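Replying to the earlier thread about multi-chain prediction with a worked example.

Input:
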Amino acid sequence: MTGKLDDRVRAEMVALLPRLRRFARGLTGVADQADDLVQAACERAIARIEQWTPGTRLDSWMFRIVQTIWLDERRAAKVRTGEGRIDAAEAAEPELSVDGVRRMEAHLTYDAVRKAIAKLPEEQRAVMMLVCVEGQTYKEAADTLGIPIGTVMSRLARARLGLSRVIGDTASGNVVRLG
Amino acid sequence: MSRMDDVMLMAYVDGEVDAATAREIEAAMAADASIAARAQRMRDGAAITRAAFADVLHEPVPDRLVAALAGSGNAGAATQAAANVVRLDPRRSRGSAHGVWGWTMAAGLAALIVGYSAGRYTGVVPPAESPVQVASTTPGGLGERWLDHVAGIYQVYTSSLAQKDKLLVDFSAEDVPELEKYFGSKLNRRLNVPDLSARGFAPQGGRLLIIGGKPAAQFLYTSSTGDLVALVVAHTDAPYLPAQADRRGDVNIVHWRNNGYAYAFAGTIDHQKLQDIADRVWRDLERAS
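Result:
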């Protein structure tokens, strides 16, 4: 049975947009780029709706489209520019800094976390977002990405280790120590 | 530690191992504090990553994305989809059990106003501000999405407390006067750390947070029975809001706004009890400001 584009499916897709945007934000690290990615994924999902099997998870199917397009774009970008990556972390710098607060902000937890995620290798970013942010099980993440569970686990473990170093630094930098 | 250990530990933290393996790992953690600490960092990492991306869910979805789903040349569908965006508020994706916010439910709001009669507020709220903002979503940069952060930070601290890890806060009850001065200067106000001893809670720590790009204070209290509650005080441009009950995951939250400050009082304790203590917090803070 193949998917058909009725109003119900469209409405489900619209409802998924915030989560797709969040996933894409984690992959790209940059808001505009993330929305471009989601838009491309939506267009592809509409064009290829017959590839979705009704009764299976629409969200996982669309996450996978997002991830596929992102990887394709990254590969193409590498070929075009001959370089490995856009420094998403730098580009995503929010305007927060004000004088005395600035030093504190160097340790800003969420900012540091997003930057740390943006610095992970592509494939680790995707599993991190799916498992830790989307709350997918290892099996679900494996299905979403079309990779074995063991691969999900090893990528996730590497991502978590890298992140835990950042969190540790951030937490100790954020401590209020008195006396 | 080998890579395998890390993977197993992570799978345990993520709830992906069977009961027998979980027992083995728990025994290993009990025997070796460094293993427990690594598990803790993994747990914190997941919680804080989730919180770090929470804002995206509450941003307005750009029209072009909705249009992309409507397909080309189908104006009817586009209109329908756009209508759905409004109806399918991103906040609802947090789960129907507790994600639906009561802003538009004026009737339901009476039940959400906890512990405080309107009369109590009239003393501190200038008449121009006193109309209760019910139907509109919060203007300004600090909507109720900041409660995601409150709950996220609360959970990070809860898990660190369970491991007797004092990393995330570090001050004791005798530091309170200095802490009040420190946070007061960051928040441009007098800020007395509310005295919750009559409710059985003693101050445990504090952190400076940044919420909405401005400094915010978080105070943590514990009870002798190990319950934890947290108070966050942040700047806001949003108008007066009477106390509201909310929930993020298993974290109950009471929050309100007054005179340019937003307050959230959070804990996994029973909702009624939390509201009761929040009432005390509110009175202490309003006396100070």
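Chain A touches chain B through 60 residues (CB under 8 Å).

Feel free to reuse this layout for your own posts.
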